[in-house]
Amino acid sequence: MNDDFAGKVKTLFDPEREAALAAITTGVYIGWRCPEFTWDCIRVGDMSKCFCGHLLNQHAQYTGKSVKVKCAMGGCECKAFAFVPGRPEDVGEFWFQRRRDFDPSTWRAKCRCKHPHDQHAPNAYKPCKAKGCRCSQFESNFLCAACDRHWEDHETFFETEDMRRQAGIPCGQEYLPFAEMPDLRNIVLTGKEDDDSPYRALTEGEGAIPRALPFDNNTPVQFGGQKKPGFKPVYD
Ligand SMILES: [Zn+2]
Ligand SMILES: [Zn+2]
Ligand SMILES: [Zn+2]
Ligand SMILES: [Zn+2]
Ligand SMILES: [Zn+2]
After folding, report:
1. Distance between CA 22 and CA 30 in Å, rounded?
2. How far is the CA of 105 from the centre of ligand 2 (A)?
3. Residue 123 Cα, ligand 1 centroid: separation in angstroms?
4. What is the layout of strands, in order, in the sheet containing 42-43?
5. 30 alpha carbon to ligand 5 midpoint, in Å?
6. Given its phi and psi angles, is residue 53 left (phi above 0), alpha (psi -120 to 50 degrees) or beta?
7. Considering only CA atoms, which of 94, 90, 92, 72 is closest in space to residue 81?
8. How far is CA 207 from CA 70, 120, 189, 190, 203, in A?
9. Which residues contact residue 45 at a Cβ distance below 8 angstroms, ignoring those fewer than 6 apart?
């Protein structure tokens, strides 16, 4: 595997690696997925963006049992954090990065009405506020890179490790990106496929996380949570 590929994979997964390590350390897991899934499409962290346009760390304090985490920014009417993709590559729009004048901070996930999420009211119906726009409910003009479904089919879940174990949803080291594929897992952690030192520190070292319960053998292995366009040939 060449360094360029490894570097790109690591960068693509930077936010999810940080979110996974934080979850494993604190025991508070935040996942974005369709409600019936037993795996997350995106691992959500403090730097993840909300539909209201503010980051998770600009919202109220949360625990693994939070249901609605409201925005703490003055004047924002958001009552419940709802993850939205914050980077074009999260929705498969890889060509943006190649534009020389592309400024990642200006990119916004968009609605079918062509207006960005943060021009829609962050309430239950999420109507568009752009002048003259008749859009009465946000509908994503993009599909999730992990499951190919629309944004509005997903929810953000705050969970404890126990809640996830009981529901058969990955936690502990199983929550790391590419947990089932050591080479890719190492790349996401270190940028190098043969460097498993952080993984071993995490699973064997002091403060090592408890071994996850064995997964039900009747459940097919799910790679869906790791699926990203552009890297399909690796595991399809
Ligand atoms: Zn807000
Ligand atoms: Zn919000
Ligand atoms: Zn709209
Ligand atoms: Zn609109
Ligand atoms: Zn999805």
Report:
1. 10
2. 17
3. 11
4. 42-43, 28-33, 155-160
5. 14
6. left
7. 72
8. 32, 44, 18, 20, 8
9. 15, 16, 18, 19, 22, 23, 30, 56
Neighbours of ion ligand 5 (CB under 5 A): 41, 144, 146-147
Mean pLDDT computed over 169-197: 93
- Find the 190 Cα to ligand 2 centroid distance in Å: 32
53 CA from centroid of ligand 4 (Å)? 16
The pLDDT value given to residue 103: 79
For 65-85, what is each residue's pLDDT tens digit?
999 999 999 999 999 999 999
Please state, in angstroms and rounded to a whole number, the distance separating the CA atoms of residues 77 and 70: 8
Query: Residues 212, 171: contact at Cβ < 8 Å?
Result: yes
Please check the confidence at residue 205 and state whether its pLDDT lies above 80: no
Closest CA to 43 of 179, 225, 198: 225
What are the φ/ψ torsions at residue 57 (nearest 5 degrees)? -75, 0
CB 176 within 8 A of CB 209: no
Burial of 77 (0-12, 13-18, 19+ CB in 10 A): exposed
Kindly list the distances between the CA atom of residue 53 and the CA atoms of 57, 105, 180, 216, in Å, as whole numbers in the listed order: 12, 11, 33, 39
**Two structure tokens written together for 59:** 């919202």
Token couple for 206: 């002091």
pLDDT, tens digit (0-9, with 9 covering 90-100), for 97-138: 667 777 778 899 999 999 999 999 999 899 999 999 999 999
Q: How far is ligand 4, taken at its centre, from the CA of residue 134, in Å? A: 7
Q: Which ligand is nearest to the CA of 123?
A: 2
